[in-house]
Please model this.
Amino acid sequence: MKMKKTMTKLLALALAVLMTLSLAACGKKDSGAADKVELPVADGAVIGQGATAITVQVTGADGKTVTFTVNTDEETVGAALLGLGVIAGDNSEYGLYVKTVNGETADYDKDGAYWAFYINGEYASVGVDYAAPEAGATYGFQVEKAA
Model:
């Protein structure tokens, strides 16, 4: 009888520990995944969280432009857009080579197309991962083809 009580207590304790761990796992958030946005971002959308609001214009290969607002506290435009999943690319010794913007991929190896980066309508002299987000500024990505 004493053995049965001990076994019941051990099983109850094991069950309590298992339930506690299960509840803790449910509350755990995958860092980054919750911050990702559904692509493509719609024209006029407001995404992200933070004190600095920037405008992002994306002109795809079809010539259509989508403009949306990004709120961020990140140090660079690249970090803000990467964190939200709006851009993706490859890191190199020169910085981030952006290959995909708002769900559209430009493949230089296939057809000479690439994403050009603009700040306030002018071709950027720095890469997206070096550009600091400035409130009210417009950051643009446009598919262009090499000559």
User: Anything to note?
Assistant: The chain has two domains: 2-30, 37-145.
